[in-house]
Amino acid sequence: MIKKCLSVIAALTLIGCACCTEPVATKSTSQLTSLYDFQIVESISNTNINVSQLVSKLVYRDVIFVGEFHSHQASHLLQLQILEGLYQKNKNLVLSMEQFTRDSQDILNKYLSGEYGEQTLINDANAWEHYKGSYRAVVEFAREKNIPIIAANAPAMHVRCVGIHGVDILKTLPEEQKSWSAQNLDLSNEKYKAKFLDFISQAGASHGQSPEQMKQRQLKTFAAQLLRDTTMAESIILARQQYPNAQIIHLNGSFHSDGHLGTVAELEAKQPNLKVTVLSPATANNLEQPEASLEQLQLGDFVYLIKPLPQRYIDKEKRNDSIRELIKSRMTNKCEL
Fold first, then answer.
1. pLDDT for residue 316 is more than 80
2. Strand partners, 303
3. pTM of the prediction?
4. What's the rounded Cα separation, in Å, for the pair 211 and 232?
């Protein structure tokens, strides 16, 4: 199944008193000269901070969401540095990852314990295709420091089946698969739904469908997205039960956590007393003096500004060819439980 990063601007104001505090602009302290560079900004004050200062602010949080652009090197470098920094202050950590699904937890555990080698992990746990370049470093740090890793996401086939048939398909899951995904989805978060539907309406076409058919298809796609969000939120809750008092660092694509929506909203609804912090990436407009816009500051409690990735396509026809191939592959996807 094609994995993609959904990343759009969130409109939800930050938790706490962030909604009533006017950020004070400050000058940036570092240039973004490479794709490994980032500038961290504390959103409530619009203050630039470094990784050490960030870690000090995160020490007493229960769950930390580090949103990422899946293919951006800066996201993965920052994730590793946060994990390393927090470990120096608190050995009781758990790493939760969107990039592994619940059905692969046993394989992941056997890799961490030394029973399996890395290629077995990659093959049998369906690691993402850019695992070695993007996630190997955090997994290896966790393995070497005996930090548990949670395979938090729903299986790709479950997501696909919900996207094709809707939420009722979850009732037909084989008994041995029911624990792999959340079973109850709350589709009532209108702000998140509007954000998601706006994204896919911009990214796709009707493909010959009537407006009503297209609406139903989009709602099923939203349900599939929510299956990921809800499953990851439940996985974090289960991890807190399994590892009491542990601080959990969760890695996911930024769409799942921007603006405290998605997975964060599901988690906070289920456990409102948790101290949750969200870090979100944002593309800098000025690489010489990167500063977050007011809109970007709404993405997370902390925002890290990064250099834009290279443009995927310049030639219009090549871009259209890519879109056609993507649509063709999706049209042939089947639900095979």
1. yes
2. 41, 280
3. 0.88
4. 32
Whole-angstrom distance, CA of residue 89 vs CA of residue 147: 14
Cβ-based neighbour number of residue 285 at 10 Å: 13
pLDDT reported for residue 2: 37
pLDDT at 29: 55
- DSSP, residue by residue, 155-206: PHHHHHHHHHH-GGGGGGS-GGGGGGS-S---TT-HHHHHHHHHHHHHH---
Which is nearest to 331 in space by CA: 228, 225, 205? 205
Token duo for residue 276: 């949750």
Sheet (strand 247-253) strand order: 47-49, 38-42, 302-306, 276-283, 63-68, 247-253, 93-101, 149-153
CB burial readout 208-244, b (16+ within 10 A) else e: eeeeeebeebbbbbbbbbbbbbbbbbbbbbebbeebe
Q: Are strands 38-42 and 47-49 parallel, antiparallel or unpaired?
A: antiparallel
Q: Do β-strands 63-68 and 149-153 pair in parallel, antiparallel, or remain unpaired?
A: unpaired
Is 318 exposed, middle or buried (CB count within 10 Å of its CB: 0-12, 13-18, 19+)? exposed
Task: Tell me the residue type at 140.
Answer: E
Residue 57 is given by DSSP the state H
Q: Which helix (H) or strand (E) holds 99?
A: strand 93-101
Using one digit for the tens of pLDDT, what is the confidence trace for 324-336? 787 677 778 899 9
d(CA 171, CA 221): 18
Copy the structure tokens of residue 292.
Answer: 């977050």
pLDDT score at 235: 98
Cα separation of 229 and 287, whole Å? Answer: 33
Strand partners, 305: 39, 282
Q: Any idea which of 16-20, 173-177, 253-257 has the lowest mean pLDDT? A: 16-20
